Each structure stands twice: as C-alpha cells, then as structure tokens.
C-alpha cells in the first residue's frame, strides 16, 4: 500500500519506479523538529535546519504535507529579497565550473548565495558518469554558499515544483542570490524560467554548428547568453560565435521585458570576464525594475505557485485515503491481468470518491 | 475564466502560458465525428481520422475528455501489436536524418511505421531555428508512414501522457512499428522509456569528450547505442568511440532484462549500417520475449497508464466546475495583490470542494 502510494506520487510526474523508502532508515531519524524549530532555524540562517526543511518539503510522504505547507507559509513573508537567476546549457558546457567561479566572485563581494540544482539525471545510479562529487569543490565549503542538489533522481515536475518552495526558504534564511541550475536542453528550462528573475544560457563555440546544439525555444527564453570556455586558443572562436549569436538574436521577436539580450564571452576555468556576467544581470535588474517587468514577473510567479499547489494538493488528498488505497490494491492485479482497462479502472476509482 | 482554466491545465505541467485557443478557429471546425466515426476510421487505418483523434486526445478542453476516453477505450483491444521504439540523443546528433533513413528502410520491408515526436522546444515560435519543415522529407510523403509531431510547445508531462494514448491509436490503425522521438538530454527520456519496448540512444563521436555530452542516467536507460555520423573521415573516430562506449557500459550494473547493451556505428546520412540497428532491435525483441521481460514491461506500462489517467482526470474534474472557476477568478487578484498567499489560497479552494 505504501509502495502504491509512493508509486502514484512519483508516477504522476512520469517516473515509474516507486521512491525507495527504507522503513528502517525512516525510523532512525533525528530529533523531530516543531514548526517553530523549523521557522526560527531558517530565519536564523541555520543551514542544517534549512536543509531538513527542504527535505521535508520534497518528501512524497503525505504526513509531511501539513508541516511543509506551514513552514512555507511562515517563511513567505520573509522571502522575495533575492535575485533569482536560472542557469542552463547543454551538458559539457561547463555549468558547474561557471557556477563555482561566479559563486565565489559573488560571495567575495559579500553576497550569500544558494545554488539549487535541478538534475534529474540518473534514476539508477544517482549520479552522472563524471564525478558529481568533485563539482563546485571550493564553493561547497564556502560559508556564504548553500548548495542543494536535487536529492535523488526525482522527476522534473516534482523537483521543479519543490524548487519554488526551496527558493522561498533560502530567501527567508538570508540568501540574497539564488542560482537555479538546470541540466540539459529539455523541458526543465521552461519550468526554471517560470521561477527566476533572470535566465542565463551558457553556450559553447561549437565546431561550425553554433546554432545546432540548442533549441530555439531555449534561446528565446534567455535573458542573457554567455559563450563559455573562451580560454586559450578557443577565445577567438568564442568571439566569432558571439558575433553569430548576436546576429541570430536580432531575428527574434522583441521580448515582453523590452530587453536587448546581451551575448558575452567568458572562461569560467580561467575566471575570465565572469564579472561581465554579473554586470549583465545587474543591468537587467535595473532595466526591468525601472519598467516594472521585474515585479510583474514576480507576481505572475505567485499565480504559478497557486496552480502548482492546487495540483499537488489534489493528488496528495486523493491518494492519502485508506479506502482509495484499498481499491487501488484491488484494481492493480486486474489491470495487470488485463481484466480491466487502465482507463476504465481510473475512471471507476475516481467516480467512487 | 476560460483563460484561467487553460492556464491551470497547462500550469500543472509547469508551463506558464495558457494555451492559445482562438475561438474563431474553434468554431470553424470540420464535420463533427461521432464516436463510431472515430473508431471505425481508425480501425480502417484512415490517417485523417487518426490525426483528428490524436488532436482530440491532446485537447486541453474538458468537453473533449469523455469522447477521448471512449475512443481510447474502444481502440485498446486492437492495440499492442507493434514494436515500440524510443529514440533519443542530444540536439545535433542527427535524430531526424536517422529516423528518415531507418523509417524508409522499414517501410521498404513492408512495415507500417508511426513516428511520434516529443518536441517541447519552442513555446514562442513553435519551432526550432533550423527548419523543422524540412525534417523527414521523404518519410513524410511515404504512404506507409505516419508522422505526428507534438502539436505545439506543449509540456513534457502533457505531451508524454497523451503520447501513450497516441501509441494505442496508431496501433489500432495498423501501424506495427512505433517510433517515439524525444529531444534533448533532459527529463523526457524517462517518460518515453516508460512507454516503449526498446530505447535507442544516438551518440556522436565527440572531440575527445565521448562521455561528457550525455548523462549517465540516459545511458543507463538505453537498450542500444548507436554512434551516428560515421561517415567519411569520421568513421574511424566513430569506431574508436564505439570501443570506448562498450568499455564504459561494462561498468554499469546488469539490467533487469538481462541484456548486453550493444553499441553500433552507423551513418544515417550515407544509409550505412542502418540495418544493423534493426537487427539489434529484433535480437532484443527475441531475447526479452524469450525471458518474459517484454511482456512484464508492457504490463507495468498499463499500471503507469492507470496512475497517469487518475492524475489527469483529477485535475480535469477539479477545474471543470463553474463554482471553482468563479472562486479562482476571485482569488487570482488577491494573490496578485499579495492579500493572500498562493499556498493558503490553494488550500482554501480545495477545502471548499
């Protein structure tokens, strides 16, 4: 039953394997925190409490739902005072190295940064093939940085929904720059775009196919483009690519925020021109705060949160019911034996409620 | 109100813009088909009816829900008699060229193939920068091929959910090989993997970073790997990459289907070794049908369908209600003016039902 519920919660996002919940591990948990413990800990900037609160929010266990919602609700008035930056680019573009260099520069300037990584990469091995453990080595020990990878191979929708809430908690904990890293060139960009103020696209100077590697839709979402790995012999090529991208961007329709998308070259590895990226973002902030887009965008993000939370709650309420679970247990074998179609079974189950 | 509902339906998948439904276009629609028209048309293999049925299924309009479900239900007994092949790879790897060559080979062998493309690329321009119109030029006019791109920049979850149903309809229409193309290296692979029999990963012989461009999780999902673009001078490099991938795959845990993942080189452009890919898939089919995995996997896909349909129906039922829509209309301005938190507003709305 528990398995089925977990399965349902993951399944609704399109992932098939149920979350692996080890009951022994669940029982050996640390001191239970009260709502007040959580909120006060977060507001004090306590990283352990912040981490635990995010874990609670990410939990698929319906028993955690009320507490999670209460924590978010109490942190909400203390949130919003950050610059939220989404960072994307194909694998291999150097996102981690960039975030390491960019983050260190920002903490050096006195900022407190939180890095939330949306990485739905590996279900089975929980990691990418090339050493996730060595990612952001120096940033991960920086007392002014908080790095939170997605806890498991959770799914896009799930992680992304919770990322909205993680942003709120990080802001309440005093982090004034939130970096949301998204992997790949797929769907997660749209979700991340919908929760940030500025969306940065990292590119490479490719071998002649500068426009092939990235979908137009992703480029259209970007508020700024960076040609990364402009190091050594590659710098000239990067500058060439910069010109090409600038030309390509002119073909795009004007954005709602009335912003000319800048294209810069940098080398995260050599820490070259990283400050230009920050200047680009500050200019964007000033521009969109002046024309009102910044606040309008933030307001629409509240509407997104509203719908996301409705949909999350609907499913949570539905599955968190003993009679429903019993009926699911009865229906699953019938579905597997093809005695009932999955569509009819789903309709019948819902009609009973 | 209509806008809010559309917005809610799209939002639940993480996309923010409401679907653009032009009421004038909706009104100027063709002859309304009955359930029987749809089902008989599909079973006869009529492509226009099949297309219209898929459009109906993909519709976010709750009024289409019952008809869509009835069509699926009636096609279901006629489905399942195909080989379902998922195809993925980073942008630029040559998926379209591969599918064109592969598909032409298959129709030449007497197969009827359906190509369902999951391409959530561009929300704003509805296309990629490099000519989607020229994709699969020769396959698209082949009478034994049916090509169905995702209709718009719909979201992953939404498209993918409907792709399961599109497969059923295509099978009922007599297509015996279904190719599900997924774009990018992101999340959609997990969803596609969950609806196919065989998952094919296309790779390139990269410039020294053969393992960088693709996430381990994607590689772990693959039932077969192809190094594409093994043409001209590139063939030696591709063969080198083949050896590297073979070595890398040995590091992976044994899969549940007890299958040694093959790695082949091919050139879709030069139609070189495309038949090897087909042989690979036929061997996989024989192997997994012999050990029972094939059928077990298909059975679990029915369970996935069950949960997906529950979740889809839950949201459809919730939003398709006048009182709820009125309450949403009342709450949205309060959320925008920050007079109520979106979390509290969502909870209140749900408690009222």
Task: Please tag this protein with its features.
353 residues; disordered N terminus; alpha/beta
In a nutshell, what does this entry contain?
Two copies of one chain form a homodimer. The first copy, chain A, is α/β, with parallel strands linked by helices and 353 residues long. Helix content of chain A is 50%, strand content 11%.
Count of discrete alpha- or pi-helical segments spanning 4 or more residues of chain A? 14
Instruction: Return the string of H and E elements of chain A.
Output: HHHHHEHEEHEHEHEHEHHHH
Order the strands across the largest sheet of chain A as they lie in space: 3-2-4-1-5-6-7
The biggest beta sheet of chain A reads: 7 strands, parallel
Average pLDDT level of chain A: 80
In percent terms, what proportion of residues of chain A is strand?
Answer: 5-15%
Shape of chain A: globular
Structural class by SSE content of chain A: alpha/beta
Which stretches of chain A of 5+ consecutive residues score pLDDT under 50? 1-25, 121-133, 151-159, 207-212
- Please state the CA-atom Rg of chain A, rounded to the nearest Å: 22 Å
Alpha carbon gap, first and last residue of chain A: 18 Å
Of all chain pairs, the largest interface belongs to: A-B, 87 and 87 residues
Give me the oligomer status. homodimer
Helix content of chain A: 40-55%
Q: Report the count of strand segments of chain A.
A: 7
